[in-house]
Specification:
282 residues, alpha+beta, 7-stranded antiparallel sheet, 28% strand
Length: 282
């Protein structure tokens, strides 16, 4: 059946876009609030994430942590959970709706319902200069999912065990001493750290391109609650060509945790869970 174009098609398309959520009620990001703590902080731990693998790390509320490009062009897939309750985890979809398709300094990573509170705040981004390029690409996206063995098998009929989904599953299972089948249910859509992505102008398909990340670049966060994190060094390397295989050159990533000096976060408190009463009209 051919599509019939209505006579008022142009008028319908001319409807003005409206931002879905008014965000002026969100907690304001004030860089000065973090500056003193950042200047005084000292590193307390470091986890090195091997290429095509994942590692788990812990961050206390009030600490900072950085994801660092160690010595090559490498992207990473980040999962975050409430350290004391794995059911409260990073909610990429709501983060995207409240902020943008790609996040940077001043944006927060929000938790799933019913918690819906800031889990971490981005406090520094050495790739903040990139913005959006001519292809519509930008870095640190919350629009894509993690590469996974199921989609890879669907498209290629090959078992590949070092997709980010599997890497995160193995790491969480080992850290929590739980079965893979249980851990896998807690792995969720990610923050694609350093990954450069967007949608094509013509077909509007999700694309990836070579990440602008270089050795020494980092994305820094402030932990708003006690966090359990897992980071996968993606088998796509800088995601400039192949994906979900052992062809691309990959490099390690580092997660560094920093403790601010006592008294430099005066007035700050970990956010409470969302205040909605939970009645749902019943």
């Amino acid at each position: 059946m051919s599509k019939t174009i209505p006579i008022d098609a142009d008028a319908r398309r001319a409807a003005k876009p409206v931002i879905c959520y008014r965000t002026d009620q969100l907690p304001e990001f004030n860089a000065a609030d973090y500056a003193t703590a950042q200047r005084s902080m000292s590193q307390v731990s470091e986890v090195i994430v091997a290429p095509r693998d994942a590692s788990v790390f812990e961050v206390k509320a009030g600490q900072f942590f950085r994801i660092v490009s160690v010595d090559g062009f490498q992207v990473g897939d980040l999962n975050l959970w409430n350290q004391h309750d794995l059911s409260e985890r990073f909610y990429s979809g709501k983060t995207r709706q409240l902020h943008a398709s790609h996040v940077t300094t001043g944006h927060r990573l929000w938790s799933t319902l019913p918690g819906l509170r800031p889990m971490a705040t981005i406090t520094a981004d050495t790739l903040g200069w990139y913005g959006f390029d001519a292809d519509g690409g930008s870095v640190h996206d919350v629009i894509g999912t993690r590469c996974d063995p199921y989609t890879n098998y669907l498209l290629n009929e090959v078992d590949y065990h070092h997709c980010c989904h599997s890497n995160l599953t193995r790491a969480l299972a080992a850290h929590k001493n739980i079965d893979l089948s249980v851990a896998e249910l807690h792995v969720h859509d990610v923050l694609n750290v350093f990954m450069c992505t967007g949608f094509t102008h013509d077909t509007h398909q999700y694309f990836m391109k070579a990440s602008p990340v270089r050795a020494g670049d980092y994305l820094e966060f402030f932990a708003e609650i006690d966090l359990l994190g897992a980071l996968s060094a993606c088998p796509g390397g800088d995601c400039s060509s192949s994906h979900s295989d052992d062809v691309t050159t990959c490099y390690p990533l580092a997660v560094q945790v920093f403790e601010p000096a006592v008294g430099t976060l005066e007035g700050w408190a970990s956010p409470e869970r969302n205040g909605y009463g939970g009645g749902h009209g019943v």
